[in-house]
Design goal:
The complex is a heterodimer of chains A (about 425) and B (about 160).
Chain A: H1 5-13, E1 24-28, E2 31-35, H2 39-46, E3 60-63, H3 73-88, E4 93-94, H4 103-109, E5 118-121, E6 135-138, H5 141-150, E7 152-156, E8 160-166, H6 175-186, E9 195-199, H7 208-216, E10 225-227, H8 232-241, E11 259-264, E12 271-273, E13 281-283, E14 294-298, H9 299-302, H10 305-315, E15 325-329, H11 333-341, H12 344-351, E16 353-355, E17 376-379, E18 395-398, H13 401-410, H14 416-421
Chain B: E1 2-9, H1 16-19, H2 30-34, H3 45-48, E2 54-57, H4 69-77, E3 81-84, H5 89-98, E4 102-104, H6 106-110, E5 117-121, E6 126-129, E7 135-137, H7 143-150, H8 154-164
Parallel strand pairs in B: 1-2, 2-3, 3-4
Antiparallel strand pairs in B: 1-5, 5-6, 6-7
The chains are: A alpha/beta (about 425), B alpha/beta (about 160).
Chain lengths: ~425, ~160
Amino acid sequence: MGMTMTQKILVRHANLESVRAGQLVMADLDMVLGNDITAPVAINEFSKFGKETVFDKDKVALVPDHFSPNKDIKAAEQCKCLRDFANDHDITNYFDVGQMGIEHALLPEKGLVGAGDLVIGADSHTCTYGALGAFSTGVGSTDMACGMATGQAWFKVPSALKFNLSGKFSPYVSGKDLILHIIGMIGVDGALYQSMEFTGEGVANLTIDDRFTVANMAIEAGAKNGIFPVDEVALAYLKEHCPKEPVIYEADADAPYEAVYDIDLSTIKSTVSFPHLPSNTRTIDQVGEVRIDQVVIGSCTNGHISDLRQAAAILKGRKVAKHVRALIFPATQKIWKQAMNEGLFDIFVDSGCAVSTPTCGPCLGGHMGILAAGERAVSTTNRNFVGRMGHVKSEVYLASPAVAAASAVAGYIADPNKVMEA
Amino acid sequence: MQVQGTVFRYGDNVDTDVIIPARYLNTSNHKELAQHCMEDLDQNFIKQVKQGDIMVADKNFGCGSSREHAPIAIKESGISCVIARTFARIFFRNAINIGLPILECPEACDGIKAGDVVSVDFSTGTITNVTTGSVFQSEPFPPFMQDLIANGGLAGYIANRGKQA
């Protein structure tokens, strides 16, 4: 019996010959990640082990990105907890405000994740690095603490779903629409405990940023990880960012899959997830008139440079509707500077958007864009649960950067094609 | 090892944002977290929950964020066990790692209502609805997991093993 791409990465890191789905393995870790919400809990657990220091100071990454720049005194204490731990243990990859970016955009950009790596992070969207052919998955703080102490974690080897992609997107359709379409199709537990493996000739038509978005939201279908093959697009990104030699794994021809889905990218329409589940999707022609109060463009899901370019292409020469607050969050300092140098900030500010320093803030209702009762936001983020972005009676509609930008202009959820024609 | 309590009954896809809203994640103090447990789904929960009570839900319990604060808040609120049809995978790991007993048992979910009194025997995996008399069978906890719960979670379990060795 063959193995999936994910299973092959686990085999290598567990020093085994083969594995099968359901098997429990202990595997070596290439990187252990935490942020200002999860790492303080992990640091407290770490102190119970009686270990003098972490297993490898180069293989721990600490990124205060959630409630930073510090939103209040308690958040400041949590960020300080990370800073002190990073200083005490001489952690190489600690990124404070000024170098900080949203962790899942920052780690690939800093070359801290390579093809074939095994990464755990105390953040559910750690699955993002599957875009680069890594096995990466979200864990909790205790697992992070054990990972920091020992350099290992146990895993139940996942079975897999295969998504066979063909064709290419229509204008204004992107990776976000693809992953929302898939979550709408299989449900928020449609891939529970499983890998989502993306393959087929259509993969070549996805930009690396599309792939980051798709892998990022695998968790919203309950998946353990999402993963892409390492092709020329991935290798070009890795060559630019990662000093490590890529280790490329391919699924065996007879690898077992629980289900195979064939998706023609040209049939994907702009897709919106209505409150209060990412699986509650409608295509843009089915949304009706939904008046909005806020637009958020950014996050680990859609704060990449191509996301900002797509938004700017629609906002250029247009104005944000008077009753809408439009907030832009480039995911990292590098992306921020690149967007500035490309003139995207002129477009955003001229249209009436506010541009922020990188932070997870609004995505999880932390700060920098909280919703009042009855308010609605179109957001390029990843969750629209009850109260996710603020008041329990507020609503979040998940969408692509193109739909979010078009909606900012229209004042209600809008099709980018229609806004561009108007 | 046995627990017994009154049931709080919830549905599908109870996510970590309603278990403990992110606006309270500027602390990792267990008691503070517990004060806001389930607040966005059931404001009466924290007023009514008593030590030993039991939470029963349907599928994909704990979906969403990796915040360990979610099982911590549930455990600290007094809940002695969560029974669901299925759990989201990160929540599943986190609950075990912090020593919050959880059981997957669809039959029990079919046969338990809010307010029922339920007892759970972790060593045999037997779930008894004391109110109705129905008995359901779940997987028993292996000895190491009973040990882990007794030690308050994985960190305590590892630390104590270190002392014994």
